[in-house]
Amino acid sequence: MPILDYNDNEILGRVRSVDTATVIVAVEDVERLRKLQVNRLAVLQSSRPGQHLIGIIQKITRTAIESKEKKNDPDKNNEEDFNEQNNVKITLIGTLINRLGDKSNVFRRTLETVPEIEANCFSLEGERLTNFMRVIANIAEDKQRLSIGQYTLDDAADAYLNGNKFFQRHAVIVGSTGSGKSWTTARILEQVARLDNANAIVFDVHGEYSPLIGSGFQHYRIAGPADLDTNTSLEDGVLFLPFWLLGYEAMTSMFVDRSDQNAPNQTMLMSRTIVNAKRKYLENGMHNDILDNFTIDSPIPFNLDFVINELNRLNSEMVPGVKAGTEKAGEFNGKLSRLIQRLENKMTDRRLGFLFQGTNETMQFDWLEKLVTALIAGTKDQTSQKGGVKIIDFSEVPSDILPLMVSLVAKIVFSIQQWTLSTNRHPIAIFCDEAHLYIPERNSAGSSGDISVEIFERIAKEGRKYGVGLVVVSQRPSEVNRTVLSQCNNLVAMRLTNGDDQAVVRRLLPDSLGGFGDLLPVLDTGEALVVGDASLLPTRIRISEPSNRPNSNTIDFWERWAEDASVGGHISAVNGWRKQSVQTEIL
């Protein structure tokens, strides 16, 4: 039975003009005009029988127009000499079809027709609105549903996203501090974790998502200084990212000072020496099948001491002079000192222990397979109970190399997907929390941020082909790389108060829904504008509370100050600061 069975006496108004997806409706009944609200839904007659066009009310105007008598006699001041013109601007968003095949009341995000002039327009409210929202909620098949909350239009209607399109077309979740951004991300992650073969990685920069627990989650953290003297490993949830995983550009960024006049020589010799070190490792391990095809970017372990010794040899090399029995400085004598010093400093820096001071296991040839299995193939199962959602805590990684380390993990994921046969490829989603820290808009050439941006740009552009989805989460969208954002076809926008951030989000909105951007500064906490391929109805949604709230660190200042309780922990904080480890406690 059709849910939109209007009578002629319920008419709101008639179509006055049509422009692509925008319709102007003239309203004669002032009482009905007063009941209308911006961003509510309206229904228009279609030129095709059995179809109705659904639109969002964008603007309501009431204008006084002089009558012909007033124009002919300007001295008249009677109210009757002015006519009122009431217009409603409506943006069309889709079509409700009474019957399509064996299905009834089918909503589609397409506009096969536009309303005719003088076509009737009706307001969508009451029971009809409830029935329509039920259609929206039931539109996707069960296996595609991603439940996130309730529609603001009708609190009784559950809001679902199409899970396939949300990750296939990439997504962006933005919102100012305290708007509910982490809450929304946690809600989505919990939905993902419930799937039997879920596969997702979360880059947790501040350790916010540690409360997300259960069989669907697996937690890892990048090794800190306190882990270097223990026997922790992957099984303990501690990740080492050995230096030999770094590619050529990343190594150059970390080890070579580009301001040095000898930087070109240092880069060339470092590259040549690392290749020789990798070749020696392969030869010693009898990996002859790899010897003919490997490059400096191939993830092959090598001995860093071998590299330093060779660089020291070149840096102090003396060669025969012009005269017999004399010597002169070699070509690179004294030109590699700063490179060698930077290498040695990095190796001894305990903050970078996860790179240079890993266990002997991390130098084994098969260690990369173990890392990949933990990060990518670690779906939850009955034997290991490992989670399909892997949350990686980067909170102990120094901020100056954070972009390099986050992008390294992303590159590993993308490379594995790229080199996997399409028939064996299992899709994976990457959640980039605080993305503005490592996918910045502007960077100097060759910096760690620039290398990170390049990797994430490639994932954003090509990830869909290899089954890699990207979810960008940030409180400052204006500071996130524009190319990456432009590839995200799903937008979940929480409250934004900064004008630059609002401008970026408005550019992501379709032209016909540009008015939605005006709601950004007035959204309630936990309320979002949801637009994109995964959302059938572009609208406001109140996000449901996740089972486990993330540690968003929103402290109630006034209440805490008013408590009659002792405040401690400062001594242990000082101790942790000295040891560069948040794990430190006073015993």
TrEMBL record:
Keyword Nucleotide-binding listed: yes
Domain of life where this protein originates: Bacteria
Segments crossing the lipid bilayer: none
Keyword terms: ATP-binding, Helicase, Hydrolase, Nucleotide-binding
Keyword Transcription in record: no
Residue ranges of domain Helicase HerA central in the record: 147-411
GO MF term (any one): helicase activity
PANTHER family associated with the record: HELICASE MJ1565-RELATED
This protein's name: Bipolar DNA helicase
Species of origin: Buttiauxella brennerae ATCC 51605
